[in-house]
Amino acid sequence: MHSQPVMPLSNIDSKKTPIAHKVLVVLAMMTVMGGSLIGLMTYINIGYSDTFFNDWLMSFLLAAVTVIPAGFIFMALFTYVVQRCLPNTSEKMRNIIVGLLMAITMESAMALSTAINNIGFSSNTALFNHWLDALLAALPLGLTLMIMTSLTIKPKIERFLKS
């Protein structure tokens, strides 16, 4: 009887995660986190109306093609800078700091893109006021999401994306 050779465990463990799975995970996170924050910001900007879901969707799509891709760059940059500046700090503390920086940066940018989509550039004062109102209303949710993400999901996602 002829038997097949046994594959070493190291070959089984070294299989790469398909890129499609990585993209789906990132898109799911982006949709849940960005969608909920932009929904709140849209509500703060214009309230609830018959066009709310369309207004939310347009704001989300604007952020999805501008703000959220920039967030991946900022995440990598903040992670690198915090690791370089605080090498003796625990990974947990560095992740908290990155989470705070990301929350403030992303909230500010999403509030701006949402205000631009909902208010436009007709009045700088109105645009600023709607940006600030949306930012202040969504910041507690954003901080909570980013801290939870930084402490629990970020390390797992980083390992998953490297696989």
TrEMBL record:
The keyword Transmembrane applies. Keywords: Membrane, Transmembrane, Transmembrane helix. This is DUF2798 domain-containing protein. It comes from Shewanella saliphila. The keyword Lyase does not apply. Pfam families: DUF2798 (PF11391). It comes from the Bacteria. The chain crosses the membrane at residues 23-44, 56-82, 94-114, 134-153. Coiled coil: none annotated.
